[in-house]
Amino acid sequence: MSDINQRxxxxxxxxxxxxxxVISGIDNEGExxxxxxxxxxxxxxxxxxxxSVMTTSTTYPRIRATGRFSVNVLSCQQDSVASQFxxxxxxxxxxxxxxxxxxxxxxxxxxxxxxxxxxxxxxxxGDHHIVIGRVKGMSPPDWHIHEPLLxxxxxxxxxxRS
Length: 162
Description:
Blueprint: H1 6-13, E1 18-19, E2 21-27, E3 30-36, E4 39-43, E5 48-54, H2 60-66, E6 68-73, H3 79-86, E7 98-100, E8 106-108, E9 113-125, E10 128-138, E11 149-152, E12 155-158
Antiparallel strand pairs: 1-11, 2-3, 2-6, 4-5, 5-10, 6-9, 7-8, 9-10, 11-12
């Protein structure tokens, strides 16, 4: 056991604002996806991104089996989408408008931007998998109209420009 108090640790790292994404894919059973705030760019050459997902996830193994995924960077108007994809045991795609990438992955409409990726590597890190994806396609960012949804101190929030 660690000497670090888990609640204090969670509260402390919660002071780091992060964007909110939905990691999505499709398999023989249909569209799949989950809300993820641990997403970041890794490398320019080759173009790599990463996200972390709990080892207990029931959605990620289905995505892993396909070898590909898309990253949907949610806009500040999509907090309900983030909440919907965070729930377990529901139809996460109910009422969600989406299109498909060239590889077939679903991308949610009205996001700030999306990336289409092949799984490049996966590493076990504590109670999470760190997944690295090689970017194969993307949308241009649409932040002029759709600013990103943020997560800070346990709540969704949006940018306020000074």
